[in-house]
Amino acid sequence: MFNKRKKVNTGFLKEEFDELLLSQINQARLEYHQAQESETALVDSRVNGHMIQAQTAVDKAKFLYLYNEAKRRKAVAKQPLIFKQPQE
Asked: What are 57-81's pLDDT values in tens digits?
């Protein structure tokens, strides 16, 4: 009776941050795929390959971190995101 805590409705806040997380995942996924494509395209050129590989590794780590965070939160996209090729 006296020491009862009120339940805080965090559903709306969780949904808002899950939407933000899912949009960041989508952006990171596109950046990672773009980095992979640029890495394979520049393999034969004279550009410093270590810098390109490092950038691809950073993009991959960023994507995997966000993806694992979404799995931990059990965030689900309302609409499945279809991979879109970046326009050239």
From this structure: 999 999 999 888 888 888 877 766 6
